[in-house]
Amino acid sequence: MSDTADTSGATLAPDEAAAARALLETRYGAAEAPAGILLNDTIAGLLSHRSVRAFTQEPLPEGLLETLVAAAQSAPSSSNLQTFSVVAVENPATKARLAEIAGGQKHVIEAPLVLVWLADLARLEEIGRRNAHPTDALGFLETLFVGFIDAALAAQNALVALESLGLGGVYLGALRNRPVELAELLGLPPNVIGVFGLAIAHPDPARPADVKPRISQRLVLHRERYDASLPQDALDHYEAALKAFQKGQNIPEIGWIAAALPRVRGAESLAGRDRIRDALTALGFGLR
Q: Which residues, at least 6 apart from 87, have a Cβ–Cβ distance to it below 8 Å?
């Protein structure tokens, strides 16, 4: 593949241009696939991302964990505060407990490695204590935001790295269902909270995962000012694309809206995460 190329085919060979177009149509559906994007191997890998929940038991390569952490720590960090940490979990009993906290997701048990990404304000608090320096700003919501953002950026770097090595992974947001229990399981000190997990393994070729379509760029990309018009045809095209994906995965063809709206209906739809503020208080965060 060319280092940088236009999907119109001006600098791509015909077979490469067709491959690029296929990537975009898979991600957006044929009706909403953008034209003329820049493309290289890195971007192609990003466009090909899929959540992998079916794993083999093939051992992970030596040095993988350190590689992923190095990639994670190479992500941007607000003011270089580096307010994230990660717990690597390989013990079967611990993974079984993680799966329970996450609502019974069996791929948590099957994956040989689960990384739990943390917003970690305790490290700076301890450094301040050792240096007799106040750390009152750690008690403000803004600093907790920084911790969540740092963890998310770091984890995404790790995911891109592992996918570049031919591995697969899936994020585990359901670990926030019971954050206090998660903290107890992993021995987290005050001012540290689990943000999400990442299960990692070799994908099972007998149970391949497909690329899930995303909503049109017309619904996401705003130029200069936010456009609240929300074009219905773009939503309709996405419904069709997602239903086709669901059919291919042998899951109910309900589209996006019928799946998304129940997730935001009310507190009961948050699976315990409606109590996250109480959990943050219990875990020592100030939230001023």
A: 115, 116, 118, 186
Alpha-helical regions (H) of 187-275: 232-248, 257-263
CA distances from 236 to 32, 91, 228 (A): 11, 45, 17
Alpha-carbon distance 64 to 154, whole Å? Answer: 15
Helices (H), 13-134: 14-28, 41-47, 64-73, 92-101, 106-110, 122-130
Q: From first to last of the 288 residues of the chain, give the pLDDT tens digit.
A: 444 444 444 466 677 778 789 999 999 999 999 987 888 899 999 999 999 999 999 999 999 999 999 999 999 999 999 999 999 999 999 999 999 999 999 999 999 999 999 999 999 999 999 999 999 999 999 999 999 999 999 999 999 999 999 999 999 999 999 999 999 999 999 999 999 999 999 999 999 899 999 999 999 999 999 999 999 999 999 999 999 999 999 999 999 999 999 999 999 999 899 999 999 999 999 888
Burial class of residue 43 (count of CB atoms within 10 Å of its CB; 0-12, 13-18, 19+): middle
User: In this structure, which amino acid lies at residue 120?
Assistant: D
Kindly list the strands in the beta sheet with 168-172, ordered across the sheet, starting from the edge strand earlier in the chain.
84-89, 113-120, 192-201, 168-172
Q: Is 98 left (phi over 0), alpha (psi -120 to 50) or beta?
A: alpha
- Going by C-alpha positions, the residue among 143, 196, 141, 202 that lies closest to residue 169 is 202
Which two tokens mark 191? 């001012």
Nearest one of 170, 147, 202, 159 to 72, comparing CA atoms: 159
Tell me the Ramachandran region of residue 37: left when phi exceeds 0, alpha when psi lies from -120 to 50, beta otherwise: beta
Q: How far apart are the first and last CA of the chain?
A: 50
